[in-house]
Amino acid sequence: MLEPIETDVRIDRKRWPAHVTLIGNFVTGAPPSEIMAAAERAHACDDALVIDFGERAQFGVKGDIPVRLVVSDGPARLHRRIADELQALGGVGADEPDYRFDGYRPHVTLGPHIAFAEGDRATARCIVVAQIHDETAVVVASATLPGSTS
Fold this sequence. Notes:
The protein is an alpha+beta fold. Helices cover 17% and strands 33% of the residues.
């Protein structure tokens, strides 16, 4: 997340705050604490993550979801490390396996309150694990990153 967020916060999935998804949706029996521990082993919580934005693209089955691609390599490297740690947990199934590992394309989804231009820079200040229930997500684990002061 670009801004810190506490656990137990409920989010309407149509109104996600600005964020870069590091791992796409997945199913697991592991508790949130184990998922966050996997992120910590991948060094996701070591420091704030600087994000540089590049060109605009359209994602989704219909190509109707506007996104701004991330050109800095930190999110892609972090994705790979977290994905490896989750795979080591066992029993983790990706909803869309094509978008994991080499198929991962870091981006921020654009919307009425989220707009970044090519060349903009932002800092991710929080790592979050969210549990999705239909149209609502609940933050089940959250870590504010060191070095993330404004």
